[in-house]
Structures are given as structure tokens and as C-alpha cells.
Amino acid sequence: MIYFDNAATTPVYPEVLQTYTEVASRIWGNPSSLHNLGSQASRILEASRKQIAELLGKNSKEIFFTSGGTEGDNWVIKGVAFEKAHLGKHIIVSEIEHPAVKEAALWLNSQGFEVDLAPVDKNGFVDLDRLEALIRPDTILISIMAVNNEIGSIQPISAISELLADKPTISFHVDAVQAIGKLSTDLFLTDRVDFATFSGHKFHSVRGVGFVYIKSGKKITPLLMGGGQESDKRSTTENVAGIAATAKALRLSLDKAQEQQKKLTAMKQILLQELDSYQDVTVFSGMEEFVPNILTFGIKNVRGEVIVHAFEEHQIYVSTTSACSSKAGKPAGTLIAMGVPQKLAQTAVRISLDGDNDMGQIEQFLTIFKQIYTNTKKVR
């Protein structure tokens, strides 16, 4: 089996699964309980929070646990909007945001807010001049992802941070789900970033755990209310075992990041060079200003899902753009925003690599690709 769908989810590291199992079986008290079992769980919880904060260069009081990226994005978009509604009701998100951001923002239209979508250029990068033109006196929130999940374009977070340097009333949120372990944290966690969202299963932790960075002093309305956990910001009993596993996974991922990025870059360069040599193949992802693990392409007149299933017959697993949208049969929203015609966008197939992949798998993929390409000649 060859797994090239790591942007959708990553396999859990064995060491991470071991941590989860040990904590789940031995430290099973509720961290909010007053007795010793609760205190044990609380110590694990806070030690994990501290480790994550230190790995990101932040304070442990700025880390809040969630169930994953979708909850985190919804919390920030809605929570900041309602918290700051008295200051204004204008929000800007980019056209290529993950649905968890984009749909949450568009829902706010029904709640009396006004949402603008910042356009991107033909290569999938937010247009800074057009973003700046959208900013108004009543703008309270701007949300831009660090790395696009469909084509892997690295968004200009540092440049946007500079743009917002003299606009302290605007909160700046970064969806960093696809960035962690692929980019240096200082590229997407600048001092100007107020909120950032993370999801554990994107960096080899268990599913159902994520966290949000909330800059000290920044206010946000809770999405979940009840027991007052997470300093009254996110009620519900914390998944202590999952959180401990996520802290372990983050440390392992960051420890391996530099070495793995070199390996990923080399594999992507081979894929890009080979795919680009086919006459009826369009490559949507580049190398410069793109993460090294994502490459999206299409075969002329062949829908992406056809190619996905053709590879699956050989136990090679790829996807059509975002896993959250692929079953809906929608063309890649990022490609449409880039001005790619819908028929061409519907051909998109995403390869997303991980450090556990190797050149032997790349060679096997390219061998099978050649067969699939030949078999689609009549359609092309």
C-alpha cells in the first residue's frame, strides 16, 4: 500500500499511540475533579499544554484544547465576531479558506455581519493590494490560512502582519492546520497573529483533538458553554489521553521537520518534473512558495475521482483536493478562485506526502500513472 493522502489525515505515530493508551488506561480521572485521580489528570493536562506552548514559542495560558480544526475555526470566526460586534460587523476571509472558516464566516451574514472574500491571484496566493482595499473602519476580523489545503500555496502571513501592524482593532486569525511541521512556526505565528488553529491528526496524533492559540489579552466569546473548562473559554471535559498524545506528536513532528522537509522536497521535485512532461497533464502546484508535501494535478477531460479510483485499484491512495469536500463531488474551490475553468478544476487530484514515504513509492506511483495516462487516451 502507498498512502499519498496525508493532507487529509496522517497515520498515528506508534509512540503517540502508546502515550494515548498509557494515559487512557492509567490516568482516567476527570481533570476537574477535586480528588487525587482528578489531580493526576489535571497535571498531565497542564504538562501537555505547557509542552505545546513551548514548542510553539508561546505561553501555556495561550493554548486552549478543542476537538480539531473545524471546531477551532468555527470558534474563532464566530467567537471573535460576537465578542467585537460592538466595534463593527465587517469580516474578511480569503476566497480559498477551508470550509470551516469560509462557511462559518458566510453564516455570520445571517446574523447581521458583513463578509468580504479576499481574492487570490492565478497561482493561489492572496492578493495583498486587493485585501488592503477591502479593509474598512468597521473591519473587526481577518482570517487567512497559512497553507492552502488543496494546492499547498503558502500564504503571505508575514506581509499581512505588516499590513495590519497599525490596525490594532482588527483581529488576525490564521488557520495553521496544514502548516505545522511543514513551515517554520515564525512564518505563520508572527507577533501580529492573534488566533491560530491546529488539528492533531494532521501531524500524526489521534483524531478528535486540536488546539487554538489565543494571544494573551485577546477576548473571544465561547462556542461551548457549561462546565467552565479551559478557563471558561471551552466547556466540556478535556480528552486528557488525546491531548497528551497530541503534545507527543507535535514534539516528534517538529523534531523531524527539518530532515523531512528536505526529503519531501526531493520527492516532490521528481513528481513535478515527471508529471509536467505529459502533454495532457496540468500541474496546479509549484515548488517556490509552496509546501513540499502537496502537489495537485489533473489529466485533461478526466474527472479527478476517476483517477483516484484508478490508483486505488493498485492500492495507491490519493484524493481529489480537500477531504472535507471530495465526497460532495465539488470542483476544487481554490482552483475556481484562481480562475481555473470548472471543467479543468474537476480534473484535480491531490498528492500529499509525508516523511514516511520514499523514492521507491514515488517510482511505483509514476509507473502506475503512466498506465492510467495511457488508458485515458480516448477520453483525452
From TrEMBL:
Q: Give all residue intervals belonging to the Aminotransferase class V domain.
A: 2-365
Q: Does the keyword Membrane apply?
A: no
Recorded hits in InterPro entries, A to Z, give: Aminotrans_V_dom, Aminotrans_V_PyrdxlP_BS, Cysteine_dSase, PyrdxlP-dep_Trfase, PyrdxlP-dep_Trfase_major, PyrdxlP-dep_Trfase_small
Keyword annotations for this protein, in alphabetical order, are: Coiled coil, Iron, Iron-sulfur, Metal-binding, Pyridoxal phosphate
Q: Which residues form a coiled coil?
A: 247-274
One Pfam annotation reads: Aminotran_5
Q: Which cofactor does it need?
A: pyridoxal 5'-phosphate
Query: What is stated as this protein's family in its record?
Result: Belongs to the class-V pyridoxal-phosphate-dependent aminotransferase family. NifS/IscS subfamily.
**Name assigned to this protein:** Cysteine desulfurase
Its lineage reads: Bacteria, Bacillati, Bacillota, Bacilli, Lactobacillales
